[in-house]
UniProtKB/TrEMBL annotation:
Source organism of the structure: Streptomyces liliiviolaceus
Span of domain L,D-TPase catalytic: 96-250
Signal sequence residues: 1-30
Disordered: annotated span: 33-56
Name this polypeptide is given: L,D-TPase catalytic domain-containing protein
Length: 258
């Protein structure tokens, strides 16, 4: 499934602490009063501004014409204009362990970056995500917006630096969750692209979940998100470029081969 970028503006709303706690239990996002910042030389959140410096490039390797491990149906869901794909491949349908690779497309084919270890949801993957199922949604989704508790590390994506990304408590394996949302990229599943990751708009309805992000790994399974080590998360943020129409392709290996 593809969620296309639409010209929606940022939304702000103050949400009670209880709502933010509920957001942590069912996903990764909620609305919150926020400030927006950008790295020097990067695009502002919306509109014109200084010409950005060249983005860091992923190390290049063999360049296949098609992304490895994807079947015809999954490949067909990647927009033709996309030149960056974060491919997240789960170990199994019911596994919380996965790997992530950022691919860049050039005239010669798809070039692979480093393989990063990752986590996904506690119970694995699903083709129809709903609130509370503790599974990550299989599919192809655009990556349009970022944010975090810490300042912009140098991304070109619109970045929401906000205290609304605070989180505490422990994960499924007793690991502390603090710092998990220091840096996030919103996955455009059941959300309004062009808004903060904290925006609570749910086009498919609240029952279909939401707040699915790529965020900092806390050492265990997630509620539904994909998580990467902090250094890998920062590298991803610095590498993705809106002009290259980045998407995430995510799911267990068997589902992605369809």
């Amino acid at each position: 499934m593809i969620t296309s970028t639409r010209g929606a503006g940022r939304r702000s709303a103050v949400v009670p602490a209880a709502a933010l706690l509920l957001a942590v239990l069912v996903g990764c996002g909620a609305t919150e009063t926020r400030t927006t910042e950008r790295a020097p030389g990067a695009h502002p959140t919306r509109g014109g501004g200084a010409e950005p410096a060249p983005a860091p490039r992923i190390s290049l390797d063999v360049a296949p014409r098609q992304l490895p491990g994807l079947g015809p149906r999954t490949s067909a869901e990647i927009p033709p204009k996309t030149r960056q794909v974060l491919l997240v491949t789960g170990r199994g349908r019911d596994s919380a362990v996965s790997t992530a690779v950022l691919y860049e497309r050039t005239a010669s084919g798809w070039h692979a970056g480093t393989v990063w270890p990752a986590h996904n949801a506690f119970k694995g993957w699903t083709d129809r995500h709903v609130v509370g199922d503790l599974r990550s949604p299989v599919g192809v989704y655009t990556l349009t917006d970022a944010g975090g508790l810490r300042g912009n590390p140098g991304t070109r994506l619109p970045y929401d630096h906000s205290g609304g990304f605070s989180v505490d408590g422990t994960g499924f394996e007793g690991e502390p969750l603090a710092g998990s949302f220091d840096y996030v990229i919103a996955i455009d599943y059941n959300r309004e692209p062009g808004t903060s990751p904290l925006d609570w708009t749910r086009p498919l309805g609240a029952g279909r979940g939401g707040g699915i992000w790529v965020h900092v790994d806390h050492g265990g399974p997630t509620q539904g998100c994909v998580s990467l080590r902090e250094d890998h998360m920062k590298a991803l943020l610095r590498a993705v470029e809106p002009a290259r129409h980045p998407v995430i392709v995510m799911g267990d290996a068997a589902s992605l081969r369809r």
